Amino acid sequence: MRPPVPVPTLSRRAKLVIGVIAVLLVLFTVIGTLTNVYVDYLWFDETNFTEVFWTEVQTRALLFAVAGVATGGLVALAVYLAYRFRPTFRPMSLEQQNLERYRQSVEPRRKLVLIAIAVVLGLFAGFTAQGSWETWLTFRNSTDFGTVDPQFGLDNSFFVFHYPFYRLALGFGFAIVILALIGSLLTHYVFGGMRLQTPGQKLTPAARVQLSVLLGVFVALKAVAYWLDRYGLVYSNRGDVFSGASYTDVNALLPAKTILVFVAVICAVAFFANIVVRNFALPAAALVLLLLSSLVIGVAYPAIVQQFVVRPSADQREAEYIERAIGSTLEAYGLTDVDYVNYAQDSDGTDVDPDAALAALRNDQATIPNARLLDPNVLSETFTARQQIRNVYGFPDKLDIDRYTIDGETRDYVVAVRELNSSGLSDNQSSWINRHTVYTHGNGFVAAPANEVVAGQEGGEPNFSGARDLPTTGTIEVDQPRIYYGELLNDNGTDVYSVVGAADGSNPREFDQPEGGSDEGQINSTYDGEGGVSIGSFFRQLTFAIYYRERNFILSGAVNDQSRVLYVRDPLDRVEKAAPFLTVDGDPYPAVVDGRVQWILDGYTTSDAFPYAEQMELGTAAADALTGTGTTALPDDQFNYIRNSVKATVDAYDGTVTLYAWDEEDPLLETYMKAFPGVVKPKSDMPDALTSHIRYPEDLFKLQRDVLTRYHVTDPTDFYNQNDRWQIPSDPTQDTSEAQPPYYILAARPGEEGASFQLTSALNAFERENLSAFISASSDPATYGEIQVLRLPGNTPFRGPQQVQNSFLTNNQVRPDLTLFNSDTSTAVFGNLLTLPIGEAGLLYIEPLYVEGSGENAFPLLQKVLVNYGDRIGYGDTLSEALDQVFGAGAGDVATDSDDPGTESDTGTEGTAAPTTAAPSTGAAPTTEAPAGGGADAGTTESAVAAINAALEALASAQQTGNFAAIGQAQQDLADAVTAYQAAQSGAAASPTG
Fold first, then answer.
1. Bridge partners, residue 837, by sequence
2. What pLDDT band is residue 755 in, cutting at 50, 70 and 90?
3. Phi-psi category of 235—alpha, beta or left, where left has phi over 0 and alpha has psi -120 to 50?
4. Which residue from 586, 608, 614 is spatially nearest to 699, judged by alpha carbons?
5. Is 696 helix (H, G, I), strand (E, B) or coil?
6. How many CB atoms sit inside 10 A of residue 802's CB?
7. pLDDT recorded at residue 953
8. Nearest to 954 by CA among 940, 938, 973
9. N or C of the chain: less Cβ packing under 10 Å?
10. pLDDT on residue 349
11. Strands, DSSP E only, in 632-675?
12. Using one digit for the tens of pLDDT, what is the confidence trace for 866-900?
């Protein structure tokens, strides 16, 4: 016999070093983990959401313990039994001699090895299971949907809440059995219970019994899996153009799964019988039967039915199941009550009736007067230039749209808050003291009417009449303007914390605002709100020093008994943390509610288990050309059910998070409210002042319009053939193929009186640029959530957004200006292309055109307005002028800017069909005098171009120095020079050519 190989041993010193390193690693890990958990708890305690914290912790701990004990314990038990019933004597063979050294290595440490196996597998299983805490909570607190699956007659709650948990439990069952089987096989092999290469009996009786039991349990679990697979057919993707059980699934695969259940049960009984029969032939035959059955009736037969029965007449065979998919998908995405309106059915998309259109415009008191000229996606730099005040303040890349009622008149406003911009701090402002104890908050709310711009020297700028400056003034009253919680309070994605409060309130430390508007002095303040976590004790200071790895929490005199630390300050992060069961819309927006600035957010409950509904990628479906620019992209998770179930607010001063149940009939929300009682307030608790600022959420709308491009077709045959499919147009104002974002507008819906605040989008024909539909979702409290779809005639060439944009770019009045604006010193910037229904007369496109200088402090200012109706184009300094060009004199009187200085112009520009009563015009009246600012001869093109170049250079210079008066004068000079150039061009065109 070969002598055993000695087991290497470590020296005492090596053991000591390894032990110390292991202890230190464990200590640091434990301290770091406990610190993170404790800081989390302090945040939940501060926000009064400890119910969420403890429920989540207890649920995770329960699943960790159950899964860990079950997996580690049962696998260790299987290994122990295999060792316990090992053979006392083993036949001598080369195989056993080779295994002897392993037995000698394991034997003295068998208890340690067994404990290690149990602990390692238990930890792994526990960590895996605790991540499914929501699956357990929804299973335990499930709420009926009240609707049933058409195939099995089960309430949809079974599929959404119960089925996922059964699958989870079954998966752990399979894992435990497989691990136990592997452990038992290895143990039996090492200790002689299984002898693969030794002559004679291969298995001892004990090994045969144990392996038969484990294999029998595995096959029994497979029978359960086959039974659950029957219900899983509601998620099948076998249908080419729809989701859910298809003809083949119901008529071929469903019976096959049922048969396989019984075959698997027979196979399991055969394995258990092997305990007595002592012959593996019977279970082996049963196992072969199971494998053959699964291949023949579970794979081959459904494939034959699909190929030879379904495919030749799929539109007829699948009709019933397509109808199920359409109904379930519309229900899952909240689209069962869409109002379809046949719109402009008598128009061919090009010719218009001037008299009817003009009458509609003159009678319109809702849409055109509220037409939005300010694009919140363009004006961030303009807001910064005019309202930043100090470098420590800033505005997000994308501003927001909201509406306010002032003196009985409701108007939409471009709104933003003047936040602390941590990334804008200079080098000497970025010390720990300044960054975290001095520059702690923003200040002020800024609002400009979306349908107004300032005339005169500051022409093209927003009119900040709603709210502006410091201290904040305007028609929107703000009682508490300080902004301690906002979207810019992060540094490269890392939350920026602030230490606020002071023991001596008479010596405030925090920078609040410049003194008297001067750049010299400043006013400081001390935070006295309820937000933040108190860190007056040494223990808490030490805790945050460890958490942030910052010794100043202990050493700095700025941290005292009255100090509080503010963290998790982004409104979206706060809501997601307070309600981890919600998916939060990527675009929070600020609103002044009862004098306080509140961030308003939309929370969604989602599921990926609604039967028959089409699966979508959440982040992909909600993406558009602006995603990631001032907004947060949704996670790219699979889902097929969504509801805007919660409206949330975050107070910008004290960070208070409030959740309101908005869709109180949502079964998912009811389930979570059972799991987290008291966390979500009833809808009736929402104050009216807040309700008036509620908007229909953008991400949900984008998902729904994507679904409607296909599921507006309800006839199964047409759906299968993809007839009348729509498509989301690409954004015509961006150099990208990404989807055009939806736009908030204040306008009248066809058939309704008065303006309503709504979210809108145009939809094209599939793979074409022609317009097919216009969709809008109401945000008014009385009609909130009502979705209207205007169906345009399917066989008429209505222009889509891209075609309208192309007509603007190629127009011979617009094109020369773009050449001038796009120079070394300036850039033309197109604003959002809005689609507005004008009564029953058709769809009107309005697009603002901005000019932005090239200097460091440059910002865009509105210079022109473009209008399209049918094949008519208007291009003027104001919306009023552009409307007059399209519809004739007086059409622009309803526009808000109709009283601005200017000349009526009655006809469209080149390429349009003008009304017969119109006189030729270029959008500005010709003049024989030199413009006041430009100094150019209107009849000389060269001098007009020279004046434009001089004005552009002056504009660039003024923007570089930040001289706002000079910027305004340069903008006025540029407008006058452009007017002179247009007049010269018009005169040249009218001159006889001989």
1. 843
2. confident
3. alpha
4. 586
5. coil
6. 17
7. 74
8. 973
9. C
10. 53
11. 638-639, 641-651, 657-661
12. 999 888 899 999 999 999 888 887 788 888 776 54
Q: CB atoms < 10 A from the CB of 182, how many?
A: 14
Cβ count near 409 (within 10 Å): 8
Q: What's the first-to-final CA gap in the chain, in angstroms?
A: 121
Alpha helices in 233-253 (DSSP H): 247-248
For residues 366 and 754, the answer to whether their CB atoms sit within 8 Å is yes
The residue extents of the domains of the chain are 64-202, 222-317, 338-375+741-921, 378-514+521-569, 570-617+638-695, 926-994
Token representation of residue 579: 């309600």
d(CA 888, CA 353): 12
439 touches 522 (CB < 8 A): no
d(CA 380, CA 376): 7
3-state secondary structure 732-773: CCCCCCCECCCEEEEECCCCCCCCEEEEEEEEEECCCCEEEE
Tokens of 754: 């008065």
Task: Provide long-range contacts, Cβ within 8 A and 24+ apart, for 55-58.
Answer: 55/137, 55/675, 55/676, 56/133, 56/580
Give the residue carrying structure tokens 């693969």. Answer: 196
- Cβ of 932: how many Cβ atoms within 10 Å? 9
pLDDT at 337 over 90: yes
The identity of residue 871, as a single letter, is D
The DSSP secondary-structure symbol of 107 reads G
The 10 Å Cβ neighbour count of residue 726 is 24
Amino acid at 480: Q
Residues written for the chain: 994
pLDDT in tens, 475-530: 999 999 999 999 998 776 677 899 998 766 567 889 988 886 555 678 888 999 99
Q: Contact at 8 Å (CB) between 82 and 187?
A: yes
Average pLDDT over residues 464-477: 93
CB 339 within 8 A of CB 788: yes
At 281-322, the pLDDT tens digits run: 888 888 888 899 999 999 999 999 999 999 999 989 999 999
Residue 414 is inside which H or E element, if any?
A: strand 409-417
- Give me 464's structure tokens: 């900040």
What average pLDDT does range 21-28 have in this prediction? Answer: 82
Report the share of the chain in percent with pLDDT over 70: 86
pLDDT class for 902, splitting at 50, 70, 90? very low
Token pair, residue 500, equals 């606020």
Q: What is the pTM of this model?
A: 0.87
| Amino acid identity for residue 266 in this structure | I
